[in-house]
Amino acid sequence: MEGFIQVTTTTEKREDAERIARTLVEARLAACVQIVGPITSIYRWKGKIETAGEWLCLIKSREELYGAVEQAIRYLHPYETPEIIAAPITAGSHDYPGWLRDELAAPCEE
């Protein structure tokens, strides 16, 4: 599907998730960001098992925009080491890829 990806990140506060989402969509680095939560995350941090309530951002973008998406998230994110991971979108409904294409920044010309 044309190199589309879903990037995920989590935040402690809904306001942080909304700020990241709005910034990415306004900059056309994301066509859509869904915010899910609160969720419970259990993880090891600095040698201890932690449990935290978080908000999950599901960011729809294009593979070539990943670097800019990551940079924006890092700039806006309050965590010392935020989760920023991407997975390819390998299939989708018939019209969805066209909508993604229309809503994202134009591809770079080489």
Descriptive account of the structure:
By secondary structure, the chain is of the alpha+beta class. The protein has a single domain (4-103), classed as 2-Layer Sandwich (Alpha-Beta Plaits). Helix content is 29%, strand content 37%. Strands 2-3-1-4 form a four-stranded antiparallel sheet. Strand 2 (32-45) and strand 3 (48-62) form a beta hairpin. Helix 1 runs antiparallel to helix 2. The longest helix has 13 residues, at 14-26. The radius of gyration is 15 Å and the shape is elongated.
Give the helix proportion (percent range). Answer: 25-40%
Any idea what the shape is?
elongated
How many domain regions?
A: 1
Give the ordered list of helices and strands: EHEEHEH
CATH topology: Alpha-Beta Plaits
Gyration radius (Cα, Å) is 15 Å
The average pLDDT score comes to 94
Distance between the termini: 20 Å
Strand order of the largest sheet: 2-3-1-4
Helix/strand class = alpha+beta
CATH class value: Alpha Beta
Amount of beta strand: 35-45%
DSSP, total strands = 4
The number of distinct helices, counting runs of at least 4 residues, comes to 3
| Major pleated sheet | 4 strands, antiparallel
What is the CATH architecture descriptor? Answer: 2-Layer Sandwich
Contiguous uncertain segments of 5+ residues: none
Keywords, please?
110 residues, alpha+beta, four-stranded antiparallel beta sheet, 3 helices, 4 strands, 29% helix
Write the layout of secondary structure elements.
Blueprint: E1 4-11, H1 14-26, E2 32-45, E3 48-62, H2 66-76, E4 85-88, H3 96-103
Antiparallel strand pairs: 1-3, 1-4, 2-3
